[in-house]
Amino acid sequence: MKKHSFGSLLFIGLVLLVMYLPIAVVIVYSFNANTARIPIDFTGWTTDWYAKLFEGRSGFGDALLLSVRVALWAVVISCVIGTLGAIGMARRVDGKSSRLDTAMESLMSLPIMIPEIILGLAFMVVFNAMGIRGNDLRLVLAHVTFCIPYVFLNVKSRLVGMDPALFDAARDLGASPARVVRDITLPLCRPAIMSGAFLALAMSLDDFVISFFVYGAGEGTLPIKIYSSVKVGVSPQVNALCTLIMGVVFIAVALSRYLSSMRAARQRRLERQIRAA
Amino acid sequence: MDASHKQDLRFSRLLKLPMYLWSIVFVFVALLYVIGLSFLSRGEIMGVTGEVTLGNYARLASPDYVKVLLQSLKLAALTTAICILVGYPFGYLMARLSPVARSVVMLLIIVPFWTNALIRIYGWRILLMSNGPVNTLLMNLGLIHEPLKLLYTDGAVLLGMVYALIPFMILPTFTTVDKLDFSVVEAARDLGASPLHAFFTVTVPLTLPGLMAGCVLVFIPSMGLFFLNDLLGGSKSVLAGGLIQQLINSRDLPMAAALSVLLLAVTGAVIAVYRKVGGTGDMSMF
Lengths: 277, 286
Hints:
The complex is a heterodimer. Chain A is mainly alpha-helical. In chain A, about 75% of the residues lie in helices and about 0% in strands. Chain A folds into 2 domains: about 55-230, MetI-like fold; about 235-270. Classes of the chains: A mainly alpha, B mainly alpha. At the A-B interface, helix 1, helix 3, helix 4, helix 5 and helix 6 of A face helix 1, helix 3, helix 4, helix 5 and helix 12 of B.
């Protein structure tokens, strides 16, 4: 049934080629031995830039630590707030969401809809007005705000597919609302919370625009540090760093796709067994 | 029963409370603050004076600002158009691949999607330099004799924009084409429609939700990506996002706020149009 013309394969191949061209260039240049200020000519292979990256003075280590610290705080806080919010909103009166809930849901998902630069400016002026000076705190507050929607939407879509009778049954058997959430809702939502947390983690580590405006003086998070290093010219150390980052992303994406395909296969097998029984 | 129902409602309110409070303080109040700021004038303390004015909005109507805004809208529209022309066929063809080929292509699309746009754009910066690989290749092929000025041009900014945002067109298109029941298309073919006719009268309308979601996901961010300006366009071609950044740097916060409010209004208009023409509002396909 499926036939692929040569043309369509060529088109897919060409687009992918263009997509990977700049990535390949960064990887190749990360091994370039040229030490000129703007090292464009390829003069030989070296791994020096990788070694330099791990020296204390480069500042990339501190930037990475800051990025990871902020991301972890942002993920934990946004998971708690977003998950509880999604569970709370799932409880509906007469099967309809209240107008307040609908309005709040739109408000809460605004941060991932509007251009990031607006949010960056908003956080900057509000934090200044509130007298919040600490960079860590400023970054965490900003990141939590744009991480909540990812967790919330994931958990909510999981809850929508669930049978409310499960919770009613537990309530009828005498469980308190808190116990229902702890023993039934949360365990059932765990995969959704995990994937929401993963998304939030990636978004937080990846964020440049908002962090750039929220961050005060200093070296900044990893994306900020990368930006300031490449803004003026070409930095072989950044090439090495970017190569490492892309390697990590590739492994993480491949792994998560592999794991989810395994889970889907297991699910299918289970369903077949249940049907057979 | 009624008592337990009330208890449930009270408890769910308690669960929602932190998210409500957070959204009110950090989204509602924060955006309201920006809107308020846009009506103040520039000053020494905290960058503003208490004087209420419409001056910032009047300045938005001045030729310099109008030029930048039109340029930004033009670039956003152009970016969206190119993303449709390349991303839609790509998403479509990708959904028609064999399962194995499809998961390989998917992986190859998702990896750049998850890699910071800054890093990917930086690669283009190297490629397009006057003594970079592209110029070297063209000169070695004898196609040109002088290096072309590729970096710091409008074309470079457009290229970077399309490059950064095209996954947002490919992924929603792929999702809708993947869900499409192709027996409908075959029925159209059996009834005598040519492949092209069937494509434009059956496939395209049925995959329109994905295409529209893609347009929104490309158009909106394309107005705010200020670092593309810096890295590929130099200071020559200023766009709305870049202008907001420059205004912040020069401490003209009220003007930056006014421009942000305008950008917010454009965003709202785009989303309203999207909802109106039947978008499902579900843009969380990831």
